[in-house]
Structures are given as structure tokens and as C-alpha cells.
Amino acid sequence: ADFLFRGHIVILADGSPFALVVPVPILEMFVDEEEYLQATSTRYFVRGLRALSFFIAMLGPGLYVAVLTVDTTILPGLLAIATASSRASIAYPILTETFLMLIIVDIMAEATVSMKGILGPAISIVGSLIVGEAAVRANLASNLGVILLALTTLATFITPRYQMTYAARIWKYGFLFISGIFGIVGWTIGVLWLMTDLVGKRELGMHYLAPLAPFRPEAFSTASATTDRKTRSADYMKTGRARS
């Protein structure tokens, strides 16, 4: 009902308990409806943290591989020495290590979704701890790599819309391989290409990055109102044709 109130289109499928909402800008994916009971500053802080976590989950592994594989001179001296010593006993390249660990994490994530009740989260937490500890002891992964993967996993699932996590989980492999081959240059090109694609993307006449691109500061002021739900719809939901 809230999406209808704000001007979205809601599609109901027979036999499904879920509804499809269009158009939905990317910022809506980081919104939890219970946030409207909180203070405005709290809502914006939590949403910003979720958005930051989403991009960390998507870009973090690639940046990690780029820095430690191709562009090691970027790191400070002591950090570079500590990183090299932690990987001294690892038999294969860091790209292979990170890829295998990411695959394992995604397998456990899907197992968590498939198992109902409290068993799924318990298996995910315990499995992550056991696999990470066993990988380090067997010299299959470095301590720094396990820390990165733990951070990536937490950052992935902080998003309130689970379907949105698939975007980060899929795209991180693309950034991982381009960074492993071309280093920071490849990672930067990938980020620029992604941002260019998102800026130009439109859904039913609405910009996917609205109200960030094109930037409309008045949309943030209306979106912060909790008492006037009608005005929140609004400015960035209007297409260029409607405004003209």
C-alpha cells in the first residue's frame, strides 16, 4: 500500500505471496519500512551504511586482489611486509584463493536460505567459522583473506532486500577477475563503467539513480517527512515528460 501511495506500480501474481513493484530506484532497495518510526538522522545514517556496505561487498574483493597482486607498491611498507608474511605459506595466487573462498561463502549463503527456521543461520555462522579456521590452518587461505571474506559476507547481507544481494554477489566476480588481470587500472575502469551504466539506466521513464542522478536535493527533503506520505512520492517519481 505504501508503494501505491507513492506512485509506484504494484503487480500481484496469482498464487504468490509476494508483489512486484515498478519502477524502483536503487535507493529504495536500502529502505526498511520500519525506519519511518526512527528519527530522520538515524534513517539516513542506516541507509547510507547499507549503501556503503553494498558497494564494499561488490568492489572490496576486487580491490583487495588488485592491490596485493599487481599494485603492491600502493601499500605502506609495514603493511606490505605483514601481508606478504601471512601469505608466505599459501601455494597458489591470491586471485585463486579469493575466488575459492567467495564460492564457498556463496554456497553457505544459499544453504542458509534453503534451510528453514533457526537451523539455516546457525549452519551459516558455524560453517563460516569452521571453514575459515580450517582454511587458515591448512594453509589454504591467509588470515587477511579470511577477514576480508567475513567483512564481505556481512556487508552483503546487511541489505534489507535479499534479492538485491544477488547483484553484489554476481558483480563481485567480474571485478575480481578484471582486478586480478589489470590491477588498479582494471578495477577503476570497471567502477567507471558501472557508474556510467547506472547513471544512464531508466525504468519506465524514471532514472535508476534518482534522486542522485540527476541530483535533486528537494527530493531528499520530501523523502524525510514521515507524516506527509503523499509528498514523499513524488518528485523523483515524476518522469521528464510529466514534469514538462
TrEMBL record:
InterPro entries: Spore_Ger, UPF0353/GerABKA_families. The chain crosses the membrane at residues 51-70, 90-109, 118-138, 144-162, 174-195. One of its GO terms (biological process) is spore germination. Residues 223-244 are annotated as: Disordered. This is GerA spore germination protein. Keywords: Membrane, Transmembrane, Transmembrane helix. PANTHER family: LEUCINE ZIPPER PROTEIN 4, SPORE GERMINATION PROTEIN. GO terms for cellular component: membrane. Pfam families: GerA (PF03323). The keyword Membrane applies. It comes from mine drainage metagenome. The keyword Ligase does not apply.
